[in-house]
Model the fold of this input.
Amino acid sequence: MSASSSSIAISILAVVMLALGYTFSRERTQGQGQGYGDSPLAISFYAGASTIAYCGTDYAVKLDGHAAGLRDLAVYDWPYGTDCENIQAAGGVLVEADAALVESVIVSNIFIYFFLGGPALSLVAKNSAGIAFGNYQNVRIRHAKQGISLQAEESSFVNSNSFLAGGMSGGGFEVGVIAQGPGACNDNKFYGMFIEPPDTTLTHVYVSGAKTNVKFHDVRLEATSKSLDKPIVIIDDSSYGNVMNGLLGHTHVQANLNRNPDIDLMSAKSVGMDPAPKNLYWNSAFKGYNADDRMMPGFSLVGTNAAITILEDSDEMLFPDHNVIDVDYLNYGGAFKLMADNTPKAPGHDFVTFGVYAIKASSAMVRGNIERAR
Done:
C-alpha cells in the first residue's frame, strides 16, 4: 500500500493485515493509529491496539519523504498461518533516502515487534543521498535481529537525527544499535534510551567507520546473560569522537579511549578517561620526591623494599607536568606501600582512580613486579 500525495494522514484503527507493506512517500505523509495497546512486551489485540501485522519479505513500513511520519501504533512481523509462518520480513520500519534528501521524519510512540530477520528500525542513505534532522520518540523494540541500524553508503550521509527515550529488550538480537559508514554517519543522538537484551551475538552497540560516531546520553546498557569476556560496546578503531554516558550494567567497553575520551560509562570493571572535576589526591603529579630521605609531599612510603625513580623522559609522561614514578619491588619484607596522607572527607563515598602498569618479573616471583604508577 502506498501513500504518495503531498499531505495525507492515514488512520489505522485496528489490526491491518498486509502483504505489501506501507510506503509513505512525498512530503508530510503521516500514518497514525490509536496506540499500541496495554503491553510493552507483546502485541495486544484485545485492548484497542492499532497494529500493522505484516506478512512478507520486504520492510513492513517505508518512509522516504520529507516530514513523513508514523505514530501511535504497533508494527508486527506476523508469524501465523500457512502463508506466513515460514516467512521473515527484511525489517520493520525503514527510513530510506535514495539519491534524494529526506529531512525531519517523525516516528513517535511505536511498538516494533518480532522482526527476527532484520532491523526493527533502520535509516539507510544511498546513491549520494542524505537523512537528517529526524525525530524518533518512544520507539519500543521487542525481539529483533537488529534494534536500530544507521547506515550511510559512500557519498551519502545519515546525520543529526535524535532518538528520545524508548529502547529494546527480548531475544534474537545480533546487535542493539549499529552505526556504520563508509559515508558520513555522525552526530546521531540517543537520549535516555535503554538497551537490555540479556545477550547479543555481536554486541549491544557497534560503531564503525572513519566518518561515523554516536552520542549516547543517560543511556542504560544491560546484558544479564552476556559472557564477561564479551564487550557490551564495540567502537571500531576507525571511529572517533563518540560520546557515551549513563549506566553500564554488565561487562565492558571495547574502544580506543584516546580517540573517544568522552566515553564515560562506568562499571565494576572500567571507568571513563575524562578528568574528574576535582583531584582528590594532593600532589597527584608526584612532585618534590627526595630520594635520600625517601619522602614525597602528600604521600607516605612504608618499607624499604622498593627502589623508586622519577622518570625524566618526557615521553613517559601521560599528562603535561605530571611525573611518572618507577617502582622496582625488591621482593622481600612484605608489601610495599605508597599511601596518600589524606583525601578530602565527604559525607557519602567518593571514587578515586589511578593507573598502574605492571610487568611480571618471573613466574616464580609473583610479587616481584616492576610497577609504574601515576
